[in-house]
Design goal:
Elements: H1 2-8, E1 15-19, H2 20-37, E2 40-44, H3 54-60, E3 63-66, H4 69-78, E4 84-88, H5 94-103, E5 106-109, H6 112-124, E6 128-132, H7 159-168, E7 178-180, H8 189-203, E8 212-214, H9 228-242, E9 245-248, H10 252-255, E10 259-271, E11 273-278, H11 282-285, H12 288-291, E12 309-314, E13 323-329, E14 338-342, E15 362-366, E16 372-376, H13 380-385
Parallel strand pairs: 1-15, 2-3, 2-9, 3-4, 4-5, 5-6, 6-7, 7-8, 8-9, 11-12
Antiparallel strand pairs: 1-10, 10-11, 10-14, 12-13, 15-16
Helix pairs in contact: 4-5, 8-9
The chain binds pyridoxal-5'-phosphate.
Pyridoxal-5'-phosphate is lined by residues 44, 46-47, 88, 182, 185, 216-218, 249-253.
């Protein structure tokens, strides 16, 4: 492992480094679920769209899913074309729908109105059509912005709206091949089990007439200690009871703990406590740290006060709250030191921005053979072009 960090020393910073061997380990675990159950697993590109790895991901998974036109196109261009390409959007646009039809085989709508608007065209092109349902069953506390079952949610059709809608337009039901739900976030299979019971309770009458069901994402399958048996039981139950094809579309689980954000200490100072300014920014390069919020793991560090030297690590922007967290170290930090934030493959490079004119981190691949390959570098033009 230390040899691998030596390789990373040559990289410019800030830089996301994705660990191919770790991605492959995750894929092996997901492949195991597919092999044992016959479920189909798709990459949710919104969590991880580093398409240099799509060929590898495509060797293991059934395909990809997209949040809209651009991800759908990326999946089509960069994944093996024999694989599945799904798309869900809360509302498709008229002017993009024809193009989406050329990329995707499965199209999931968020409402019966969307089915009415686009469903016939999708069916005429031979697409499999899905409807996202909202089982109104919250299983997570704390992360309200990640709860599609919260009151007032715009995501998925509730039972009440579906019953009313189909009473008014029963013909729309004939367009629908599958049901889709996505309600979990970094959760174990017990939450899935609870959710499935709610799905059956509210939508069970429709299931025998469907071809497939999609369990969405948020399954932390590749996390240590995940209850694999319970997951596989949930999958088999839907297969055996209703004869359904089961899809899962994890994002996080594909690239969990499979990337670093390498950064350099630019400056240290003291104001009530020791502070270090890094060349990476929470606001720009790891927005989930502030949005979720969470404290990213950092190699060779401890909690504040755990090791002798504690620092508050912050970014080089003007935002006072651009703080990654308080960490402790065995020795004092100094200018030029390199730090390695961990679990930085997911929801990082897909969410970054150039606030304050911050440079975007480079993207590198730590290959299985230990070599490190710089995949992308960004510059001033990337900042300017978007404005
Ligand atoms: C976010 C999302 C996913 C992936 O979720 P993860 O938490 O990254 O596993 C899958 N499907 C849909 C519809 C999503 O919105």
């Amino acid at each position: 492992m230390s040899q691998r960090f030596d390789e990373m020393k040559q990289l410019p910073t800030p830089c996301y480094v994705v660990d191919e061997a770790k991605i492959e380990q995750n894929l092996e675990i997901l492949r195991g679920v597919m092999d044992r159950t016959g479920a189909r697993i798709l990459l949710a590109q919104k969590a991880f769209s580093m398409y240099a790895l799509y060929p590898l991901i495509g060797e293991y998974l059934s395909g990809a899913t997209a949040s809209g036109l651009y991800e759908a196109r990326l999946g089509m261009e960069e994944m093996d074309s024999s694989l599945e390409n799904h798309v869900f959007s809360p509302a498709f646009r008229e002017e993009e729908f024809e193009e989406i039809l050329t990329y995707c085989d499965h199209i999931v709508f968020n409402s019966l109105k969307q089915v009415e608007k686009f469903g016939r065209r999708a069916k005429e092109c031979g697409k499999s059509v899905g409807l996202r349902i909202n089982p109104q069953c919250s299983t997570q506390e704390g992360h309200a912005i990640y709860d599609p079952c919260a009151p007032g949610s715009r995501l998925g059709v509730t039972k009440e709206n579906l019953v009313q809608g189909l009473a008014a337009q029963p013909e729309l039901f004939s367009y629908i091949d599958g049901l889709h739900f996505h309600t979990l976030c970094e959760q174990d299979a017990d939450a899935l089990e609870v959710t499935l019971a709610a799905v059956e309770e509210a939508f069970g009458e429709y299931l025998p007439r469907m071809k497939w069901i999609n369990f969405g994402g948020g399954h932390h399958i590749t996390r240590e200690g995940y209850d694999m048996e319970r997951l596989e039981h949930c999958i088999r139950r839907m297969q055996e009871k209703y004869g359904l094809i089961v899809y899962l579309e994890p994002g996080e689980a594909v690239a969990l703990n499979a990337g670093y954000l390498v950064t350099t200490v630019l400056e240290t100072l003291h104001n009530d406590m020791e502070i270090a300014i890094l060349d990476t920014s929470a606001a720009c390069h790891m927005p989930d740290v502030l949005e979720m919020p969470y404290r990213p793991p950092l190699k060779d560090s401890g909690e504040a006060g755990e090791k002798p030297y504690t620092y508050r690590l912050g970014g080089p922007t003007c935002l006072a709250g651009d703080i990654i967290g308080d960490y402790s170290f065995d020795s004092p930090l100094k200018e030029g030191d390199r730090l390695y934030f961990q679990d930085m493959a997911i929801y990082s490079m897909v969410k970054n921005n150039t606030f304050n004119g911050m440079p975007l981190p480079s993207i590198a691949l730590l290959k299985k053979d230990g070599r490190c390959e710089l995949v992308k570098q960004f510059g001033y033009e990337d900042f300017k072009r978007r404005l």
